[in-house]
Write a structure and sequence with these properties.
mainly beta, 1 helix
Length: about 140
């Protein structure tokens, strides 16, 4: 059964934070399960989240909850094992709404994931995410 692969030892990085206000809009809010908090990127043509797992994982699903109007029309999931360069796993196409969206991921064993949000719905290129879940199994 798939479980959340993000844990306290998972290192995360993001492309930007709105007005550099990490307290209110920082990356920690992607994983805190709080309906009131979110990661809000700054402006740009694309935004990304990188996750470095403490051990190899087998990813099977990606779940994302955007704020409607601040989603992306296209996304790309890339992964690697420690010494390798990132390689494309799958493209996905989110809808512009507030629902939790689930995207299947072809079997991929990785130590690192990069989720890139391309073609933002917002004119300025901002992306707002309330929940980001990576599901699968520990390898």
């Amino acid at each position: 059964m798939a479980q959340s692969l993000v844990c306290a030892d998972t290192v995360s990085r993001v492309s930007s934070v709105l007005n550099r206000n990490t307290r209110q809009f920082g990356k920690k809010h992607l994983f805190d399960q709080d309906e009131e908090t979110c990661w809000n990127s700054d402006q740009g043509p694309s935004q990304w989240v990188i996750l470095e797992f403490p051990r190899r994982v087998r990813v099977s699903q990606l779940q994302i909850q955007f704020q409607g109007g601040f989603s992306s029309r296209r996304g790309c999931l890339e992964g690697s094992q420690r010494s390798e360069a990132l390689g494309k796993i799958v493209d996905f196409y989110p809808e512009d709404n507030n629902s939790i969206q689930t995207f299947p991921v072809p079997a991929a064993e990785v130590d690192q994931l990069k989720v890139t949000f391309e073609d933002p719905a917002d004119f300025f290129g901002r992306v707002v995410i309330y929940h980001l879940r990576v599901l699968g199994e520990k390898a």
